[in-house]
Structures are given as structure tokens and as C-alpha cells.
Amino acid sequence: MATDNATAAGNDAIFSLEQMRGAYEHRALWLHYLAEKAVEDGENGPLHQAIRKCGLYHADVRFAPFTSMDDFDEVFQSEPAKSVFEMETIEKDDDTLSIDFHYCPLVEAWKKLSLPQDEISVLCDIAMDGDRGIIEGLGCLKFDLPKTIANGDDVCQIRITRK
Fold first, then answer.
1. Residues sharing a CB contact under 8 Å with residue 61, sequence separation 6 or more, in sequence order
2. d(Cα 66, Cα 146) in Å, to the nearest integer?
3. CA–CA separation, 157 and 74 (whole Å)
4. Cis status, amide bond into 80, omega within 30 of 0
5. pLDDT for residue 43
6. Angle of helix 45-58 versus helix 117-138 axis, rounded to 10
7. How far apart are alpha carbons 44 and 49 in whole angstroms?
8. DSSP for 29-96?
9. What Rg value do the Cα atoms of the chain yield, rounded?
10. Is the Cα dihedral 55, 6, 86, 90 positive or negative?
11. What is the reported pLDDT for 13?
12. Average pLDDT over residues 93-120
């Protein structure tokens, strides 16, 4: 049955871009409050490790085995994430995948909390351990993040290259 918030299609619900961004913002709030508690307890290293472990899990479940940059990209830029983060492919060939993200709902959530820029940068770095874990788990790729919205840049630049 269709509602104002979602349209049912079999067992899958189709949500609006605004609703999907809201879900990512909610995830950002979780991370902030977990990090806040970790800092109070004197240790945020386990957060990096846990998020990276989640990325390693996704490397095995969603991305392995690595067969081609095209196949990797098809999963990495699948919907709704592609729309939520406003991903733009800058370059893609057999050895390189360069994507610019023009929007980050996590950063938007942290800004709504009026967090200082340095804390937003730390939270972003923790969150990016998920992507780093995916790349690490595949073993044949290298991950670079030259720019981030969290550091005040206009885009997040994800650069993935074959080792």
C-alpha cells in the first residue's frame, strides 16, 4: 500500500531523496554521539577500527571478488547513494575511478549540531574508514581522499586506483 512517505514495490520501499538524506543524517548523529562518548572515555581509536571493520565486511559481501573497475563502480555508485551524495564520475578506466561527491548529508547533520570544523573533520575521517575498509578488503586497490567537504572543500574527491 502506498503512503505519503514511501511507495511499496514488492518488498522494497522507494523513498524520496530528502528521506534518504535524513537517514544518512541520522547515521551521522549516531557517529557524533558515539565519538563524543569515546572522547569522554579517552579513546576514539575503536571507532576507527569498528567503521573499518564494517568496510571490510562490505568488501567481502558486496564487492568481492574484484573483477573490474566497472563492476566495482556499479556497486559503489548504486542508487540511492549516487543521488544522495550527488556523485559525479570524473574519470574511469581499467585502473582508475575518480568520483567527486558534491553533497554530504553527514556533514550537513554535524553542521546542524553547530559542531566546530575540526570536530566535523575528525568525524568525517572516522566515517571514511568504511570506504577505506572496502578498498583494504579487496586488496588490489588504493584509496585517496585529496579533498573533503568536511574540511571546507567544495567537494569530496574519492580517488581509487589499481595497485
1. none
2. 24
3. 18
4. yes
5. 83
6. 40
7. 9
8. HHHHHHHHHHHHTT--HHHHHHHHHHHHHHIIIIIPSP--HHHHHHHHT-TTHHHHTTEEEEEESSSE
9. 17
10. positive
11. 67
12. 97
Query: Distance of alpha carbon 124 from its chain centroid, rounded?
Result: 9
Q: Which grid cell is 23?
A: 537517514
Report the C-alpha gap between 154 and 150 in whole angstroms: 9
| Global pTM value | 0.85
> How many Cβ atoms are within 10 Å of 108's Cβ, its own excluded?
14
Closest CA to 74 of 65, 63, 84: 63
Residues 147, 63 contacting (CB under 8 angstroms): no
CA 120/CA 87 separation, integer angstroms: 20
Q: 49: which 3 cell numbers?
A: 577500527
